[in-house]
Amino acid sequence: MTDTMILDRLNAVKPAEERGAPLLEISHLRKEYDGVPALRDISLRIDKQEVVVVLGPSGCGKSTLLRCMNGLERIQAGEILLDGGVLTTEKTDWRLIRQKIGMVFQSYELFPHMTVLENILLGPLKVQKRKRKEAETAARVLLERVGLYEKRTAFPRQLSGGQKQRAAIIRALVMEPEIMLFDEITAALDPEMVREVLDVMLELARSRMTMVIVTHEMQFAKAAADRIVFMDEGEVVEDSPPGDFFVKPKTERARRFLNIFQF
Amino acid sequence: MRDLGIRVLIEGVNLQRLLLGLAVTARIAFIAVAFSMVLGVPFGILMTRRNAALRFLCRFYLEAMRIIPVLVWLFIFYFGLARNFHINLSAAAAAVLVFTLWGTAEMGDIVRGAVTSLHRHQYESAHALGLSEVQLYLYVIIPQAARRLVPGAINLTTRMIKTTSLVVLIGIVEMLKVGQQIIESNFLKSPTAAFWVYGLIFFLYFILCMPVSRLSKRLERRWQS
Ligand SMILES: Nc1ncnc2c1ncn2[C@@H]1O[C@H](COP(=O)(O)OP(=O)(O)OP(=O)(O)O)[C@@H](O)[C@H]1O
Ligand SMILES: [Mg+2]
Hints:
- The complex is a heterodimer of chains A (263) and B (225).
- Chain A has helices at residues 3-11, 62-69, 94-100, 116-127, 132-145, 161-173, 191-206, 218-224, 242-247, 252-260, and strands spanning 22-33, 36-47, 51-55, 77-82, 85-86, 101-104, 179-183, 210-214, 227-232, 235-240.
- In chain A, strand 9 and strand 10 (235-240) form a beta hairpin.
- Chain A has a domain at 21-111 and 179-260: Rossmann fold.
- Chain A is globular and about 55 Å long.
- Chain A contains 10 helices and 10 strands.
- Chain B has helices at residues 7-10, 14-47, 52-67, 70-85, 91-116, 120-128, 133-163, 175-185, 193-224.
- Chain B is mainly alpha-helical and 225 residues long.
- The chains are: A alpha/beta (263), B mainly alpha (225).
- Chain A binds chain B through residues 70, 72, 94-96, 98-99, 102-103, 105, 107, 109-113, 122-123, 126-128, 171-172, 175, and chain B through 121-122, 124-132, 135, 139-140, 143-144, 147.
- The complex binds adenosine-5'-triphosphate and magnesium ion (MG).
């Protein structure tokens, strides 16, 4: 495969006819920690090319929801479907599923003993068994896109927080996932670095990557989201377009939550 | 004539005998350390698994190796097996076996400590990438744990080298035993021989352990940068 072909594939804006088909469907999901429910009865549908921002007060179960979506947590009840296939059976091969679901966490979780490039190539080479040359080209294209190509031989401790998070995004993207999950990836960053990371997510949104984003950045949520899912105490309380949610929230709980962010 | 105790070192074949003793010590220690380091890694990883029965078994083994002195283990494997089960191990084989069993237990505990000191997020990121359990340990956990367990592993190695002097009690003539023999046979002729012989043995143990600690310093420096 030539560089330009890889470039085209990575930069491709997905065809519009795919929009609207369900990609991830969650029904009646229940998750408990030692008998205490963290998610009570979650039903949620995420369509192809949709950007869903999940909001809610601390401890309401946002991280837990994302972790259930790629099998990092066992669930007590309910069902998760990806592309129509049930994920929540005993036989689910999560290794295969996780290649289709990219995830980036709040704290920097690059592997500290590997360079940026080694971090990024681990998945393609060891999990997907791709050719080194092709994977390196893909990594280069992506690194250039987020302005990190010069840092490819740096170790994580030599990077700023914003650079680390951008590298972590590339590490997930290079696997060419069908959907990306972001869990407060700017929450631990210094304010001046938040922007550079949000910009990367905005650009992904523009290229119609399907995304579920947990964030406390309200301006960003307004700008990026096709839909806002508002959670409280382990339940989805509201699920509406950002225009509606931020202007006239339906519930008292959402109003109270939004007031916290107003001065 | 003035007593020149140092002469016992160069008289006859004394020096040669001491060096042969050193070789016996070094060989038992080297083989046992090598086995312990290799076997300690899987054992340590087993100790971190969540399975309760497995953890209990590992713990039991570790404590047994710790509570019962190495000397007793040597007796059990050398005399005990021969008398009760008619398994005749050579003294050297029994020594290597016992030191390996002990070293694996201790090394396992060091590996366990290093592995559990890694952040939970490292496992989750690796899982989220789709790495298998084996790949997770091979590429993510063990390389990071290795950096943290070097000091402990070096410490264990030198302890094992020094403890090999116990094998004399199952009839293996190692360096310390040779030294004692030399001192005894020269007791009347040169009363200060003990000083020189033990001095040399001290030096030889030092020579044996020094490369190990040099290696650890180099590794630590390399991994720091
Ligand atoms: N490993 C765990 N063991 C026990 N309880 C947990 C665990 N992880 C989360 N919880 C509980 O589950 C609930 C939901 O937690 P979760 O981390 O999903 O919240 P969150 O919405 O992501 O909060 P935040 O905005 O602070 O990140 C909380 O009450 C939390 O205490
Ligand atoms: Mg969270």
